[in-house]
Amino acid sequence: MTYPIEVAVRHRYNAYNCRIGKTRASSTNSPQVAVERLMDKLWPPGTHRATQIARGGDTTHFHIMPIELEVKYGQT
To answer: What is the superkingdom listed in this entry's lineage (predicted)?
Structure first.
């Protein structure tokens, strides 16, 4: 898999929704929580980190990176 993975979180119908492939997650709390739920479905908890990179209108974009690669390449 190529990193970073970019994920778009959309705010629609009073919920934040995101997906990677066919795996979906949502939250009524925040876009960050929606991305964290998506990561927990795809990888073991605590192995990846999402960083917000942009926000515009009803869409928030995040980069997902494995924590071990962030440490290896000095990205935090």
So the answer is: Bacteria
